[in-house]
Design a protein that fits this description.
Blueprint (H helix, E strand, L loop, with lengths): L4 H27 L1 H7 L5 H23 L5 H23 L2 H25 L10
Helix pairs in contact: 1-3, 1-5, 3-4, 4-5
């Protein structure tokens, strides 16, 4: 593994982790839909299912592009990361009540920092990568 090989591996593992979180969100919102509706969870579990599916699909695609060393992998991955961060903060700010927002703030900041490190440190354009 070359000097940049560990970065590519770490970037791929992060894409897999984010994709798994999205797919789990989709799966659990569908599996527990009746229970979540009985609790009066807002927004509706359908929102959680759709957002989970989109997150899972987006990061599965970025992971596959990274795995197969697609020339546009870095560009697409960074765009997916930016959309994810915009959604994360819009979801927290506009769909959470104040106590939930404050309780999730440290986690949201850590997720944001991890995503930014992933996007700007681990993901490198193909022209900067050496063949390993």
């Amino acid at each position: 593994m070359g000097a940049g090989g560990w970065k590519r591996t770490a970037a791929l593992l992060m894409a897999i982790l984010y994709a798994c979180m999205g797919w789990l969100r989709l799966y659990n919102s569908l599996r527990l839909r009746a229970y979540l509706v009985s609790l009066g969870v807002w927004p509706d579990p359908l929102y959680q299912a759709i957002s989970g599916g989109l997150i899972g699909a987006a990061f599965t695609i970025t992971g596959l592009l990274t795995l197969f060393r697609h020339a546009r992998a870095a560009f697409i991955t960074r765009r997916a990361g930016l959309v994810f961060l915009a959604w994360l903060w819009a979801d927290r700010v506009f769909l959470s009540d104040l106590p939930s927002f404050l309780n999730l703030l440290p986690v949201s900041i850590l997720i944001s920092l991890a995503t930014l490190v992933w996007m700007f440190f681990l993901i490198q354009p193909m022209d900067n990568q050496k063949e390993s």
